[in-house]
Amino acid sequence: MAKSKFEYVRNFEADDTCLQNCWVVVRLDGRNFHKFADQHGFKKPNDERALQLMSKCALTVMEELNDIVIAYGQSDEYSFVFKRKSNWFKRRASKFISHVVSQFSSSFVFYWQDYFKDQALLFPPGFDGRVVLYPSNQNLRDYLSWRQADCHINNLYNTTFWALVQQGGLSNSEAEEKLKGTLAGEKNDILFLEFNINYNNEPEIYRKGTVLIWHKIEETIDKRITTPDAPEGKNVVVKRTRNKLLPFHMDVIGDKFWEEHSQILADS
Ligand code: DGT
Ligand code: MG
Ligand code: MG
Ligand code: MG
Ligand code: MG
């Protein structure tokens, strides 16, 4: 087709190709979720429904988009890791970010009522997104460790803070004052000595966040086939393997997870 004289405007588009060989990480985060959580009655410090909805949205992103090998989520954020060799949309950063964030956002609205049965969605939520490139496996592991350490630090603080307020009768500012400058061990002590809570027994989904990875599973399905000796058809059981996404709430900072799931970094 002949080109119009306007065609030249295409050259104004910036080249945002992600560097070859790097892991492409897209992280999204709820916009102003402090307010969103308050207005939608999220339980403090953790709302199971909100976390499950976030993971449902992440699952949808991984199923709909190509080349995502692992995702990690906590609080109002989720990170998606595209394989190093991905050439999806010619590795354009804007495509990675916009597809992840829009698929996630529309899923959040679409699936809201499945998780918040008694709470209407009061206004349209938004999410920001960014892309970060990690050139080595160690960098990628450190990135995920950073997000999980963040989950742990915030959750220990929030669990202690809300125990002091909800069970200890302190005001928000009194609880804040009491926790100022405390180390992790001191927060553990407050929880255990004052509230009989062993932090290590708190649900893993709160302490560790959620990891989504692909698993090969063997399925047996019933199938109807026709053969020369059974032209009218017969039922047979066939085995097939398929990839299924599974959630985990485990430590990704140590080596164990990466040894047990070595296919993630192998990236063939
Ligand atoms: P931003 O991201 O700069 O637009 O602002 P926020 O307000 O989203 O701040 P951010 O992302 O640093 O912190 C996440 C907020 O979301 C935090 O204030 C608490 C809230 N949030 C996340 N998950 C839960 C939950 O399960 N329960 C409650 N009550 N709040 C939650
Ligand atoms: Mg946020
Ligand atoms: Mg923020
Ligand atoms: Mg956040
Ligand atoms: Mg189009």
From TrEMBL:
Instruction: Kindly state what the record says about how the cofactor is bound.
Output: Binds 2 magnesium ions per subunit.
Extract one GO molecular function annotation from the record: GTP binding
Its source organism is Scyliorhinus torazame
What does this gene product do? Answer: Adds a GMP to the 5'-end of tRNA(His) after transcription and RNase P cleavage. This step is essential for proper recognition of the tRNA and for the fidelity of protein synthesis. Also functions as a guanyl-nucleotide exchange factor/GEF for the MFN1 and MFN2 mitofusins thereby regulating mitochondrial fusion. By regulating both mitochondrial dynamics and bioenergetic function, it contributes to cell survival following oxidative stress.
> Could you say which protein family the record assigns here?
Belongs to the tRNA(His) guanylyltransferase family.
Name all Thg1 C-terminal domain ranges: 138-253
Protein residues bound to GTP: D29, G30, R31, N32, F33, H34, S75, D76
Protein's UniProt keywords contain Nucleotide-binding = yes
Any one GO BP annotation for this protein: tRNA modification
Which residues make up the binding site for Mg(2+) 1? D29, G30, D76
Cofactor(s) needed: Mg(2+)
Kindly report, in one word, the top-level EC class recorded for this enzyme.
Answer: transferase
Q: What is its EC number?
A: 2.7.7.79
- Tell me how this protein assembles: Homotetramer. Interacts with MFN1 and MFN2; functions as a guanyl-nucleotide exchange factor/GEF for MFN2 and also probably MFN1.
Q: What is this protein called?
A: tRNA(His) guanylyltransferase
Report domain tRNAHis guanylyltransferase catalytic positions. Answer: 6-135
The protein's UniProt keywords, in alphabetical order, are: GTP-binding, Magnesium, Metal-binding, Nucleotide-binding, Nucleotidyltransferase, Signal, Transferase, tRNA processing
| Catalyzed reaction equations | a 5'-end ribonucleotide-tRNA(His) + GTP + ATP + H2O = a 5'-end phospho-guanosine-ribonucleotide-tRNA(His) + AMP + 2 diphosphate + H(+)
Covered residues of the complete protein?
Answer: 55 to 322 of 322
Entry binding sites for Mg(2+) 2: D29, D76
* The organism's place on the tree of life at top rank: Eukaryota
- Asked whether the UniProt record includes Magnesium among its keywords, one would answer yes
